[in-house]
Design goal:
single chain, seven-stranded parallel β-sheet, 8 helices, 14% strand, globular
């Protein structure tokens, strides 16, 4: 299916690898010009070069911290005209026991995973409304629907973003501007590897065994492939998704069991 996105321009945050890169790649495959962001200049540059060479789209790499005010300004300044698509993404807070978390830990979690996406949305939403097209996709977490005990900071910060989006999405939908959230379960990324490693250390077990157990528990019998996550993101950004508004699309292989 032609997603109707050729020639559009997207900001994709934290897109040097993992789920962010998967989203950037599917957009590039559909003719979208990219502003890619991550902190690591080397990894980001290599990913940007590959997408540029493979898909023939314009790719601008901006190595900066998107969770800082200066970083956001730098990414937004790289735009050539209106931003049509915004993919919000940032690394999640570390796992642990809430008794050990300071106010600084909480403030960082809320800044990175709630306030930063909101600030970026604020920067692009009115131009999107003016042109009659805009797509915002926030990569959050399956923990929004199914909280993970050891990821309390992530549960809290991302739930705050979800609540904010629920209201705003319904205010701007009449302008063909949609805001939705993608909720990943366990995908084959560095993040999931680090979580398995953290649990392995805490429990005195082998990370490979923990991964095998997680795969066995999932109805699909596996960890998710990042490409299928990117494809879901591309659909939510497409010209055909204008009636999908304020939704939390959980992509977890059926791990969360709910009838609604």
């Amino acid at each position: 299916m032609d997603l109707g996105l050729a020639g559009r321009q997207a900001i994709v945050c934290a897109s040097s690898k993992g789920l962010g890169l998967a989203c950037a790649e599917e957009l590039a495959a559909n003719g979208v010009n990219l502003i890619m962001n991550a902190r690591s200049a080397d990894v980001l540059g290599a990913s940007a070069d590959r997408l540029r060479d493979t898909y023939g789209v314009k790719v601008t790499a901006v190595a900066t911290d998107i969770t800082s005010e200066d970083g956001r300004k730098e990414v937004l300044a790289a735009a050539d005209g209106t931003i049509d698509i915004l993919i919000n993404n940032a690394g999640g807070p570390p796992p642990g026991d809430f008794r050990n978390w300071s106010m600084d830990d909480w403030n960082k979690a809320v800044n990175d995973n709630m306030l930063t996406p909101i600030e970026l949305i604020k920067a692009v939403i009115d131009p999107m409304i003016d042109q009659g097209f805009g797509r915002v996709v926030n990569i959050t977490s399956g923990s929004v629907k199914n909280p993970i005990p050891q990821l309390g900071m992530s549960n809290g910060a991302r739930a705050g973003l979800t609540g904010f989006v629920a209201g705003l999405a319904r205010q701007v939908a009449k302008h063909n501007v949609t805001i939705n959230n993608l909720l990943p379960g366990q995908f084959d990324t560095d993040r999931i590897a680090s979580l398995f490693a953290s649990r392995a250390t805490a429990e005195g077990r082998d990370a490979a065994d923990l991964r095998a157990e997680a795969e066995a528990r999932n109805p699909c019998g596996r960890i998710g492939y990042i490409k299928e996550f990117g494809q879901a993101c591309a659909y939510l950004c497409s010209a055909h998704s204008g009636y999908v508004v304020g939704q939390n699309l959980l992509i977890d292989g059926g791990a969360f069991n709910s009838s609604h």
